[in-house]
Amino acid sequence: MAEIEATTGGTLALALPFLAAAIAPIAKRFLGAHAAWLLALAPALAFAILFTFLPTVADGGVVQFGYDWIPAFDVRFSFRIDGLASTFGLLITGIGTLIVLYSGGYLKGHRDQGRFFSFILMFMGSMLGLVLADDLMTLFVYWELTSITSFLLIGFDHDRERARRGAIQALAITGGGGLALLAGFILIRELAGLNSMSEVLAAGDALRSSPAYTAIFVLVICGAFTKSAQMPFHVWLPNAMEAPTPVSAYLHSATMVKAGVYLLLRMQPALGETVLWTTVLPIFGAVTLVMGALLAVRATDIKITLAYTTVSSLGLLVMLIGVGTEAALIGAVLYLIAHSLFKGGLFMVAGSVDHGAHTRELDRLGGLARYMPITFTAALLCALSMGGITPFVGFLAKEEIYHALEHPDAWHVFLIAAAILGNALMFAAAFIVALKPFVGRLPETIHHPHEGGLTIWLGPLVLGVAGLVGALFSETYHHFFSGPMASSAIGAPAGIEISWVPHLNLAFALSLATIGLGILIYLASNAIRAATGRTLAAIGWGPDLGFDQAMRGLLRVSFIATRRLQSGRLDYYMTVTIAVITAGLLVPMIFAGALPSEPKVPELRFYEWIVLALILVGIVAVVIAKNRLTAIVSLGIQGFATALIFMLLGAPDLSFTQFMVETLSVVILALVMTRLRLSPADHRPWRETLPDAALATAGGAGFGLFLLSITQRPFDPVLSDFFERYSYAIAHGHNIVNVIIVDFRGVDTMGEIAVVMTTGLAVLALIRIRVGRRDRAPADPTETTP
């Protein structure tokens, strides 16, 4: 397998969508509606760059490029283009080009069209990085970027509550799955020592034989299932239809929802062929397939219908990946490509109908074919492919799916029954969308229906024609697209020979049965819709309602926890903080047997004993002080004594700094305390002060023991030697301590100065508030100041 480096071209392809996103608002301001043509050049050029890699990928080669990111943790910003990544990348950039143009016409005149262009292009770059990423951490970063940018796109019309809810729901579900995926990747890195997809695929049975396989499997499929809307995580996808139609056509048919499917296809050679894999994935996929298709027939909004068919299609893909045979994976690859083409086109058709007739409700539509002939043609092309009619790529996929499942055992009979029922329901849904709005009489409620402009009908027509051309030239299609993609998913060269010409076999018979059943469902769609609606109403509860209940429960728990933990009492906060720190210091040392050995008392000079005595005197003075001012002054004794120790040990600069800090601290605290009651220092009874004294003693013991354990370790001079060697050579300073503070730790020092400045401003504000209240005389002698 040939491997080539393509650093410049690959990096440019990844960067182009983000660069276009950066200039999108400016382009929209100066070019208006024509900005879409300029911005579409970015994904088009990225498509052209990826297209140049096709010969290498088609011959089984791999294109790799990347940069070191965090070498200390073996994290690289690395990318890998094989058959799977190449086809996904071409779908993302190719359909993305059409979506940008479509957005220019669909959102023409929208005040925030420039912002929309930025969001959609950022998502495009994130999705492209996801499918090309090789390093696991790089893949996760792009994975989360798709969640964030999809949140922005779904909630684009943020003035509407339903749009905000859909965005939050999508982010919560896919973001939670993303955290699970991160945990899975960390297990793969730490337990198996595999940092990239290249290493994972080259490791053979390393993950399957790992004791952590079950945990890795569960975490990875949680990430995949939430992203690809498998039941019961499917609810976010229909609610995401609150986004503008270009978002639905791109994110929720061709790209984002396929990220989980991509991950499963990518990991199949490493995680597949186990009992868990071949049981869990087919079951969840089959249930999602049938239920999603049934809900699609029930819906009356065109976009909701298409959304549920997307859920159903994703279930079919997951089911096939779970079966895991070569024929099943080939079927999954063929269907994935076909679905991206026909579903992206149908979503754009939905937007075109909404744009031209001002409604998407099926029972309010009809007779649009004579007014919107191009849209009707595109809808028919896409629906024929979705229905699995030859000569369209959907037919190739359906034949291969049935061929993969035609086994006589009960398990495969169950799966093929689910496939037939799901495909028949989706067949009906496809023609409900493609025929009902266009045939029959035009309702009186629709006024002046019209065909959209070039940018609106171009996308669905191109995708519909692509589904036809791919099947007619199936040999070329398999050589450059489906074949390399299937080979990457299988982990071995895959030969795909299916064409648009039907063969009289069991698979074709099952395909005819699916079409016949689909026609019956189409004719009975109104009755099925009513029966399904009554059933769901009788059931009542569902995952969507469950999400709302879970969010309300989370808010309630957060409120209770916050009310308990954030009581508003400073003494409570200090007690909890010190207790946690003390436990963090003492518990590990005690249970790990890491307590320091008894230290030897060094021989001290008489003046050093005097300094230690001063520290003890200061401690006693603070404890027995009768008022707060005396306690504050006594508190400074310890600081000044510490400064004397620095001076005696030959560090006058540190000593001077300590003197200044202690002086300022005492002065500031004293000034503050003059605005408060100075006595008594502590009026609480002993039963309340003893626990605090015990905690303070434990804290002091914890820090003391921790410092003793550190000083008893062998001294490592690496840092000392480094600073001694480079302080003058790099920073041109002989005082090593000053060089460390100002140069090597310059940012930290700046942060510390900012903290001190902020504290000073806060103290000043408190003093001014207190003075202002005291100086305000009451207007009426009977009034009192607060």
Automatic annotation (TrEMBL):
<keyword id="KW-0812">Transmembrane</keyword>
<dbReference type="InterPro" id="IPR050616">
    <property type="entry name" value="CPA3_Na-H_Antiporter_A"/>
</dbReference>
<dbReference type="Pfam" id="PF20501">
    <property type="entry name" value="MbhE"/>
</dbReference>
<feature type="transmembrane region" description="Helical">
    <location>
        <begin position="456"/>
        <end position="474"/>
    </location>
</feature>
<feature type="transmembrane region" description="Helical">
    <location>
        <begin position="168"/>
        <end position="188"/>
    </location>
</feature>
<dbReference type="InterPro" id="IPR001750">
    <property type="entry name" value="ND/Mrp_TM"/>
</dbReference>
<feature type="transmembrane region" description="Helical">
    <location>
        <begin position="572"/>
        <end position="594"/>
    </location>
</feature>
<feature type="domain" description="MrpA C-terminal/MbhE">
    <location>
        <begin position="691"/>
        <end position="768"/>
    </location>
</feature>
<feature type="transmembrane region" description="Helical">
    <location>
        <begin position="506"/>
        <end position="524"/>
    </location>
</feature>
<keyword id="KW-1003">Cell membrane</keyword>
<feature type="transmembrane region" description="Helical">
    <location>
        <begin position="6"/>
        <end position="24"/>
    </location>
</feature>
<feature type="transmembrane region" description="Helical">
    <location>
        <begin position="632"/>
        <end position="650"/>
    </location>
</feature>
<feature type="transmembrane region" description="Helical">
    <location>
        <begin position="208"/>
        <end position="226"/>
    </location>
</feature>
<dbReference type="InterPro" id="IPR042106">
    <property type="entry name" value="Nuo/plastoQ_OxRdtase_6_NuoJ"/>
</dbReference>
<feature type="transmembrane region" description="Helical">
    <location>
        <begin position="371"/>
        <end position="393"/>
    </location>
</feature>
<dbReference type="GO" id="GO:0015297">
    <property type="term" value="F:antiporter activity"/>
</dbReference>
<feature type="domain" description="MrpA C-terminal/MbhD">
    <location>
        <begin position="613"/>
        <end position="677"/>
    </location>
</feature>
<feature type="domain" description="NADH:quinone oxidoreductase/Mrp antiporter transmembrane">
    <location>
        <begin position="133"/>
        <end position="416"/>
    </location>
</feature>
<dbReference type="InterPro" id="IPR025383">
    <property type="entry name" value="MrpA_C/MbhD"/>
</dbReference>
<feature type="domain" description="NADH-Ubiquinone oxidoreductase (complex I) chain 5 N-terminal">
    <location>
        <begin position="71"/>
        <end position="117"/>
    </location>
</feature>
<dbReference type="InterPro" id="IPR001516">
    <property type="entry name" value="Proton_antipo_N"/>
</dbReference>
<keyword id="KW-1133">Transmembrane helix</keyword>
<dbReference type="Pfam" id="PF00662">
    <property type="entry name" value="Proton_antipo_N"/>
</dbReference>
<dbReference type="Pfam" id="PF13244">
    <property type="entry name" value="MbhD"/>
</dbReference>
<dbReference type="GO" id="GO:0005886">
    <property type="term" value="C:plasma membrane"/>
</dbReference>
<feature type="transmembrane region" description="Helical">
    <location>
        <begin position="36"/>
        <end position="57"/>
    </location>
</feature>
<dbReference type="InterPro" id="IPR046806">
    <property type="entry name" value="MrpA_C/MbhE"/>
</dbReference>
<feature type="transmembrane region" description="Helical">
    <location>
        <begin position="114"/>
        <end position="133"/>
    </location>
</feature>
<keyword id="KW-0472">Membrane</keyword>
<feature type="transmembrane region" description="Helical">
    <location>
        <begin position="277"/>
        <end position="297"/>
    </location>
</feature>
<feature type="transmembrane region" description="Helical">
    <location>
        <begin position="606"/>
        <end position="625"/>
    </location>
</feature>
<keyword id="KW-0813">Transport</keyword>
<keyword id="KW-0050">Antiport</keyword>
<feature type="transmembrane region" description="Helical">
    <location>
        <begin position="753"/>
        <end position="771"/>
    </location>
</feature>
<feature type="transmembrane region" description="Helical">
    <location>
        <begin position="690"/>
        <end position="710"/>
    </location>
</feature>
<feature type="transmembrane region" description="Helical">
    <location>
        <begin position="413"/>
        <end position="435"/>
    </location>
</feature>
<dbReference type="Pfam" id="PF00361">
    <property type="entry name" value="Proton_antipo_M"/>
</dbReference>
<feature type="transmembrane region" description="Helical">
    <location>
        <begin position="656"/>
        <end position="678"/>
    </location>
</feature>
<protein>
    <submittedName>
        <fullName>Putative monovalent cation/H+ antiporter subunit A</fullName>
    </submittedName>
</protein>
<dbReference type="GO" id="GO:0006811">
    <property type="term" value="P:monoatomic ion transport"/>
</dbReference>
<feature type="transmembrane region" description="Helical">
    <location>
        <begin position="77"/>
        <end position="102"/>
    </location>
</feature>
<keyword id="KW-0406">Ion transport</keyword>
